[in-house]
Structure formats: C-alpha cells, structure tokens
Amino acid sequence: MNKLAFIGGTGVYNPEILTDLHSETIETPYGTAKYELGYFKDKPIVFMARHGVNHTIPPHKINFRANIYALKALGVSSIVSTTAVGSLNPDYKPGELVLVDQFIDQTKSRIGTFYDGELHGVAHIDMTHPYCPHLRAAVLDAAHREGIVIHPEGTYICTEGPRFETPAEIKAYRMWGADVVGMTNVPECQLAREAEMCYATISMVTNFAAGISKQSLTHREVVECMNQNIESFVKIITILSQEFDPDTDCDCRHAAKDFGGFQL
C-alpha cells in the first residue's frame, strides 16, 4: 500500500490532522532522516518537518537526499510539500497560495541528484513538467472547494540562503520570469522525480521580495504570515488525506524507466 507524505516548510511543523502520531528515524545511504508516522482515519501518512520541529536546520544544510530516499523506503509514492515564499509578482499577494509549476535553480552548494555515478549510476531525468500534474490537479480542486485563493501556476526561483535576496537579484529574477522566491524547493523537487515519486508544492506568499517591499525583510514576518494563514494548508491537506489515492499510477512513477527504474 503506497503512502501519502507531507513535507512541512517554515511555519508548518505540526501535522495536527493526524492521530496515533509517533516520531521515528531511518538510516539511509545519505544519512539519517527524521519523520513522523500517523494516521488520518485508517490511512497511514508520513510527515516531515523540513527544517526540524524547532526550525534548527537552515535551507542550505537540509539533507534533501536522505529525506527523499527515506520517504521512498517508507513506501511513499506521493509528496505534497509546503513552502514560504516572497512574491516577485504584484498579482501574488501575501497570504495567498501559489501552486507552482516550474522552477529556476539558483542554488550553489547542494548535491541535487541520486544519479551521481555512485550508488545509482548515471541518469538524465526529464523535467519538462517538474511538478506532478495529477497531484497538482488534486490540490487545486481541494483549494477551490474550500474557497481558498490559490494561483494555479507560477515559477519558483530557488536561492541558496539563508540570507534574503538583494533588490538587484530580485530585479534580475523578475526579468527571467520568476513569480516567487524561496530557498528549499530545489533539489527536493528533482530528487522526488528521480526517485519516481509524485510531488507538488503549495507555496504561501508571506511577503513581497526585496526591492518590491519598501521595508526590510525579517524571518519573523514570514513566520507570522504563515501562522495567520496556516488554516488554508490544513483544509487542503485534510481533503487530500481523505480522498487522494496514492496507489493511482502516474508517469512520475516511471520517470527513470529508461535507466532501469529507481532502485533502493
């Protein structure tokens, strides 16, 4: 039986909809990963706090490979993650959600692949559609049913962090076509695809980015906005937990078929 997993970003540390919750660790070839296993009614669901339950892991030190490998080993087939983002698009306002459909990678020091010539050999995986269309459709439907403002598409530019971006950088990213900026969606998204898992990200706009906002950016501002609007996430993941079938086949589950599939 395949499982659904949620990865909580900044401000999302508690899977409050789950029962019989207990914390576990799992060893992977890439290090130790921590997760929580619980149930929504009778369905097992895995939750991971990307930054740790007390936000102790900065974005550039997250062990993305261990996290995604662990979820694969736990039988997870579909992942919905949350991210806090700054907006580069004046139509995407603080408190609103964005269901991103493309990303631009501006990270510098992260290992972004399982296919590095070692444990899994070498492979080149298509990323024409980085986020699972099937899972995105389910998220979009849940949001609409709850009357939640969610933009159905957007380009996420991922920076290294942990600092916020300069106004000059934001100006350049806008010229490239980016709509929102964050620090965590890469390589998480591409690792999930390499591991042949469905993956979608719900991004919450917490502020306008540097140079667009007239005020200096603070982490407190991000967390406060997430706390004020987290109910939108809860409503969406409640519907997904109840209705989404992680056993449904999808092209994402065969992304590495030309290379023999992803093997644990």
UniProtKB/TrEMBL annotation:
<dbReference type="Pfam" id="PF01048">
    <property type="entry name" value="PNP_UDP_1"/>
</dbReference>
<dbReference type="GO" id="GO:0006166">
    <property type="term" value="P:purine ribonucleoside salvage"/>
</dbReference>
<keyword id="KW-0328">Glycosyltransferase</keyword>
<feature type="site" description="Important for substrate specificity">
    <location>
        <position position="219"/>
    </location>
</feature>
<comment type="function">
    <text>Purine nucleoside phosphorylase which is highly specific for 6-oxopurine nucleosides. Cleaves guanosine or inosine to respective bases and sugar-1-phosphate molecules. Involved in purine salvage.</text>
</comment>
<dbReference type="InterPro" id="IPR010044">
    <property type="entry name" value="MTAP"/>
</dbReference>
<feature type="binding site">
    <location>
        <begin position="50"/>
        <end position="51"/>
    </location>
    <ligand>
        <name>phosphate</name>
    </ligand>
</feature>
<dbReference type="GO" id="GO:0005829">
    <property type="term" value="C:cytosol"/>
</dbReference>
<dbReference type="GO" id="GO:0019509">
    <property type="term" value="P:L-methionine salvage from methylthioadenosine"/>
</dbReference>
<dbReference type="InterPro" id="IPR000845">
    <property type="entry name" value="Nucleoside_phosphorylase_d"/>
</dbReference>
<feature type="binding site">
    <location>
        <begin position="83"/>
        <end position="84"/>
    </location>
    <ligand>
        <name>phosphate</name>
    </ligand>
</feature>
<protein>
    <recommendedName>
        <fullName>Probable 6-oxopurine nucleoside phosphorylase</fullName>
        <ecNumber>2.4.2.1</ecNumber>
    </recommendedName>
</protein>
<dbReference type="GO" id="GO:0017061">
    <property type="term" value="F:S-methyl-5-thioadenosine phosphorylase activity"/>
</dbReference>
<comment type="pathway">
    <text>Purine metabolism; purine nucleoside salvage.</text>
</comment>
<feature type="binding site">
    <location>
        <position position="10"/>
    </location>
    <ligand>
        <name>phosphate</name>
    </ligand>
</feature>
<feature type="binding site">
    <location>
        <position position="183"/>
    </location>
    <ligand>
        <name>substrate</name>
    </ligand>
</feature>
<dbReference type="InterPro" id="IPR035994">
    <property type="entry name" value="Nucleoside_phosphorylase_sf"/>
</dbReference>
<keyword id="KW-0808">Transferase</keyword>
<feature type="binding site">
    <location>
        <position position="184"/>
    </location>
    <ligand>
        <name>phosphate</name>
    </ligand>
</feature>
<keyword id="KW-0660">Purine salvage</keyword>
<feature type="site" description="Important for substrate specificity">
    <location>
        <position position="165"/>
    </location>
</feature>
<comment type="subunit">
    <text>Homohexamer. Dimer of a homotrimer.</text>
</comment>
<feature type="binding site">
    <location>
        <begin position="207"/>
        <end position="209"/>
    </location>
    <ligand>
        <name>substrate</name>
    </ligand>
</feature>
<feature type="domain" description="Nucleoside phosphorylase">
    <location>
        <begin position="3"/>
        <end position="238"/>
    </location>
</feature>
<comment type="similarity">
    <text>Belongs to the PNP/MTAP phosphorylase family. MTAP subfamily.</text>
</comment>
